[in-house]
Write a structure and sequence with these properties.
alpha+beta, 2 domains, nine-stranded mixed sheet
């Protein structure tokens, strides 16, 4: 009789201990940081600009240097629109350094102090976002080419031949800077348009 009572007590104790262990494990999982802490929403990139393509252009295939560089840009979808008139571009080339902004009165002309900006593709009907000379807002639904003129005397007077390293800084807000570096290929061949995206 004693043995059966002892055996029954041992079984009851084992069941209680097992239940406590299982309960503790479940509570530990349920109250784990992964379950209790709320994950913050995704933070948009601090710099709104997204560069899609970089292209160098020569007037003809016999020119030894690139005469203008074009950046195809848009903005990240998580971000609000970007007013291109407030964008500041710092070009650091092989022989020249220049700060460039957009001149609203002549937005398609790139000079020694201004970059040019054109929507690609051009919409058949302008909307209130990109509608020069009234508004210069870049949204994630559209893209623009930013053109930097390297020639002299109209442009910044930089010499961009083969095998050259260039850094370009895009500042869309004070302190928010996107750095883009590329290297020109060792040979341009007979190409008038040179892909610099992978450089």
């Amino acid at each position: 009789m004693k043995r059966s009572r002892i055996a029954a007590s041992v079984i009851v104790i084992a069941i209680v201990v097992s239940a406590s262990v299982i309960s503790g494990l479940w509570m530990g999982w349920y109250l784990s940081p992964e379950k209790t802490e709320k994950k913050p929403p995704p933070v948009p990139p601090s710099v709104r600009i997204k560069i899609l393509d970089i292209m160098g252009v020569r007037d003809n295939s016999s020119e030894s240097d690139i005469e203008c560089v074009m950046f195809l840009i848009t903005v990240w979808s998580e971000n609000p629109s970007l007013d291109i008139t407030k964008l500041r571009v710092h070009w650091v080339g092989p022989t020249k350094s220049a700060y460039l902004t957009l001149a609203p009165a002549s937005w398609t002309t790139a000079t020694a102090t201004n970059f040019a900006a054109e929507e690609i593709p051009v919409k058949s009907q302008r909307t209130s976002d990109w509608n020069p000379p009234n508004t210069f807002l870049l949204l994630w639904e559209n893209m623009i080419y930013i053109k930097i003129n390297l020639t002299s005397p109209d442009g910044i007077n930089d010499t961009l031949g083969t095998g050259k390293i260039v850094k370009v800084y895009f500042e869309d807000l004070p302190g928010h800077v996107l750095e883009q570096q590329f290297t020109t290929p060792r040979s341009f061949g007979t190409n008038q348009y040179i892909d610099l995206t992978m450089g």
